[in-house]
Design brief:
This protein is of the alpha/beta class. The protein has helices spanning 20-23, 41-52, 111-115, 118-154, 159-173, 201-204, 219-234, 289-294, 296-334, 337-354; strands at residues 2-6, 8-11, 14-17, 29-34, 58-62, 70-75, 80-84, 100-104, 184-186, 190-193, 196-199, 209-214, 239-244, 251-257, 262-267, 279-282. α2 (41-52) packs parallel to α10 (337-354) and α4 (118-154) packs antiparallel against α9.
């Protein structure tokens, strides 16, 4: 089974990720890769994932700043995780040498070569930080506007209609008892990137029934996911909750229930999804139309502002990625990639012995 997520995303409070729960799990052994841009972290993970993908399930976690780059992988069969432990997602061992191990890729670079470009590296690194700070400010503004629409939406819901739907829908998609432990796992399925608002749709291919919930106001979809996830967990189903980072991960936008083959996916003013292969649930019917009309101008202005702010975020992230590529060039030229290849093979051998 192929699962793909984002490691995390930038919120108005800084970078947010739930990957620490995997590192802290004593049943897993985690390799924490330390090193600058272009030192081979993503390449190592891609090579290891490719080596084991035919023999065990692998979860891939991508970088929201560079969706083509891996930030982490989890090999379920061998209970092994490998993660980029550098800023903005800094990770350190909880039980060094027992459950985690630091891999310092800086041991494989030519320091003299890097020092010869000291001023240039500092300049582009500072420029990248400035652009990411700008993206963070726009993300904060976007969160505020989305939050206003969300709180408006909460007050517009026809509770009786929604509760009736939920009772019928839970009977349809949930059995009396699941075979799990009622675990709730948090994963980032959607993120704002330089390419727009992306959802790792390949993960949805694992689900037989994908329900796309169209929701202009965010609130109804969150309440549905919250209610169904609680009931599913109570019945013993393990569930995956996917929060929206524009709400600082306090509002859910997707729910995955692997045992039932059901995925609930929000389609809102930010997400851009092809819904052809799923089942559409129009949540507009659960909002009081008369009450919505009274807030029409405010909600319309918020929607236009969301679009404008999100475009600014995408553009800023694209500029930051271009600068990040400049940083990588200096480190790539200073790296001994034969040693990196040897290190990759060494890790493959170690992990193979655990399987």
């Amino acid at each position: 089974m192929s699962e793909k997520y984002f490691l995390g995303t930038m919120t108005q409070y800084g970078f947010s990720t739930e990957f620490g729960s995997i590192i802290e799990n004593p049943d897993y052994f985690t390799y924490i890769l330390k090193g600058g841009a272009g030192t081979g972290k993503s390449s190592i993970m891609k090579k290891i994932a490719s080596e084991f993908e035919d023999t065990q399930d692998i979860i891939r976690f991508y970088c929201s700043s560079d969706p083509n780059s891996l930030d982490a992988i989890v090999l379920k069969g061998s209970k092994t995780a490998i993660v980029d432990g550098t800023s903005p997602h800094v990770f350190d061992p909880q039980y060094p040498g027992i459950c985690q191990k630091i891999i310092n890729l800086g041991d494989n670079w030519n320091e003299a070569e890097l020092q010869s470009h000291k001023d240039e590296i500092i300049s582009v690194t500072d420029k990248n930080k400035s652009l990411m700070a700008r993206a963070k400010r726009f993300s904060t503004a976007l969160s505020n506007v989305c939050g206003d629409t969300y709180f408006c939406g909460l007050g517009l819901i026809s509770s009786d209609k929604l509760e009736g739907f939920l009772e019928r829908f839970k009977k349809k998609i949930l059995g009396k008892k699941g075979s799990g432990e009622g675990k709730k796992i948090v994963r980032q399925l959607t993120a704002l990137t330089e390419f727009g608002c992306l959802t790792q749709t390949e993960t949805l291919e694992n689900f037989l029934d994908v329900y796309y919930m169209t929701d202009d106001y965010f609130a109804c979809s969150h309440l549905i996911i919250e209610d169904i996830s609680k009931e599913a967990a109570r019945r013993g189903y393990n569930v995956t909750l996917c929060p929206s980072h524009v709400f600082n991960n306090n509002v859910y936008e997707h729910l995955l229930i692997p045992e039932t083959g059901v995925a609930l996916v929000s389609v809102n003013p930010l997400t851009e999804l092809n819904t052809e292969n799923g089942k559409i649930i129009n949540l507009g019917r659960f909002y009081d139309k008369h009450a919505v009309s009274k807030l029409k101008s405010r909600l319309k202005m918020n929607k236009l502002t969301m679009k404008s702010l999100s475009q600014e975020i995408y553009g800023t992230l694209k500029s930051a990625k271009a600068v990040h590529d400049e940083i990588e060039k200096y480190y790539i030229s200073a790296m001994d990639f034969e040693k990196i290849n040897d290190l990759s093979q060494c890790l493959i051998n170690e992990i193979g012995n655990k399987a």
